[in-house]
Amino acid sequence: MQEQSQWIRESLTSFPQPPNRTNHNAFYGPIDDLFNAVKEKKVLLEEESSIGSLDLGASSCTSNEDAHRWKFYEEDIATLRGKTCKSVKAGVLLRKLRWCTLGLQFDWSKRNYNVSLPHKKIPDALCQLAKRLAAPAMPIGEEFQPEAAIVNYFGLGDTLGGHLDDMEADWSKPIVSMSLGCKAIFLLGGKSREDPPLAMFLRSGDAVLMAGEARECFHGECVLPGNFIIMIWCI
């Protein structure tokens, strides 16, 4: 349980940190210290970059590709300024966090890995855990070398539809998935969407290793009643 708690904590605090990308990047740009902003009940405000002022009470300045600046403000300051600019509470942003990417960054608009995007290596502790979990599927003498990871965040009633992880150059290497938080049903289908899936019950701390023919199969998840579930996919 202690190790699971560690990975849940990392998934909420450090994994979404820039240069790692999240589903929020497309609209807000990179957001620093989201989890701390939630604890401090801060609000993210949008300002035109031409203002360029450094207001007291502002922190974690971020910018997106639309030449706007987004800043976290204390709630009382945000209330005063919120009448003239768009705003969103940090807690709302955290609840709407759906994914973040570690290592090589995945470009969801083009459905491929973009090596030109800034990125850091997968944290060593996560890399070593993935290596241990993948070992049964690796040829003798070879070691799993994950280059990317996707962290999915699911709330009550969320699902991940059937899909293939087919953007990797080498399909002979396995995919390692770790489940944290609530219980979930993992569905492993076949090579066609019409193939009936095999349902697997996942508890917090369970891992799924997809290798061989399973690497080419459709799969998806649905969350059972509870608060949330985090799934870390190492590829």
From TrEMBL:
Pfam families linked: 2OG-FeII_Oxy_2
Protein name according to UniProt: Alpha-ketoglutarate-dependent dioxygenase AlkB-like domain-containing protein
Organism, scientific name: Citrus sinensis (Sweet orange)
UniProt signal peptide: none
Family: Belongs to the alkB family.
One GO MF term: metal ion binding
Domain Alpha-ketoglutarate-dependent dioxygenase AlkB-like residue range list: 81-220
Cofactor binding remark: Binds 1 Fe(2+) ion per subunit.
Amino-acid positions noted as binding Fe cation in the UniProt annotation, renumbered to this chain: H163, D165, H219
Cofactor (UniProt): Fe(2+)
Source taxonomy: Eukaryota, Viridiplantae, Streptophyta, Embryophyta, Tracheophyta
Keywords: Dioxygenase, Iron, Metal-binding, Oxidoreductase
InterPro entries: Alkb, AlkB-like, AlkB-like_sf
